Amino acid sequence: MRIAFLLALTALVPSLPVHGADRAETQAAGRQCVILLHGLGRTYRSMSKLAHAAESAGYIAVNLDYPSRAKAIETLAAEVVPEGLKRCRDAGASPVNFVTHSMGGIVVRYYLGKNRVPELGRIVMLSPPNQGTEAADALRDDAFYRWWNGPAGQQLGTGADGIAARLGPVTYPVGIITGTEHAFFDAERAKLIPGPNDGKVSVERAKVAGMTDLRIIPATHTFIMNDDEAIFQALHFLRHERFRW
């Protein structure tokens, strides 16, 4: 298994118990940190497998929970990213990396567009709507969609009023992993999206100007963070600033 192979390579790096920065002691000083941000409508539990893999590979993992449905992306960015940075800094960890799923990538991009993070390392985005998504365009007036996804869901469209249109190119190392399959409950939504897509975001709209590397895998938007290949590639990018081919 590719994850086992990568973890074997990092076996000389001491690991931290599950829940990373929550129980980090002074011996963590000098180690790298990775902040994990889930997507819209999810919780930190959706990133637990990835967080455990990161900790097993020697990183301090800060798996954040945040009210993704309750607030606009600008507010979420101002609240959640500083919390993650504080936990990493309190643990004496540097550099600080990010692994995000879906809208979590937009939250980080917005924050970094407004704030400088001196110890910033590398970022892996899983299925990010970096150029918005046609699914949000089609569903924005749907009552259930508006209720379930809240203010942030209204910001993920592809038009000029979407938040993606206000974010510039990335100027830091970013690796993007996105999928080409969709879960059965996304079958109708997938039809709204031109070209290969994962049921919510197309391969083309996952891309962002300035990105370092792109990896396309047969995974769905909903479960890509649990995909073994996605986890292997995410850890590989954090170590080498490129995906493994």
Task: Write a concise keyword list for the protein shown above.
245 residues, alpha/beta, Rossmann fold, 35% helix, disordered N terminus
Summarize the structure in words.
The protein has 245 residues and is an alpha/beta fold. It has one domain: Alpha/Beta hydrolase fold, catalytic domain (Rossmann fold, 3-Layer(aba) Sandwich), CATH 3.40.50.1820. It is 35% helix and 14% strand. It has a six-stranded parallel sheet with strand order 2-1-3-4-5-6, sandwiched between helices. Helix 3 packs across helix 4. The chain is globular and about 45 Å long. The two termini are 15 Å apart. The N terminus is likely disordered.
Number of domains: 1
Overall mean pLDDT stands at 89
Helical content, roughly? Answer: 25-40%
In CATH, the topology is named Rossmann fold
Largest sheet: 6 strands, parallel
**CATH level-four homologous superfamily name:** Alpha/Beta hydrolase fold, catalytic domain
The CATH class is Alpha Beta
Give me the number of helical elements. Answer: 9
| N- and C-termini, Cα separation | 15 Å
The total beta strand count reads 6
CATH architecture: 3-Layer(aba) Sandwich
Looking at the structure, what is the overall shape? globular
Order of helices and strands: HEHEHEHEHHEHHEH
* Radius of gyration of CA atoms, rounded to a whole number: 17 Å
Show unreliable segments.
3-30
How much strand content do the residues show?
5-15%
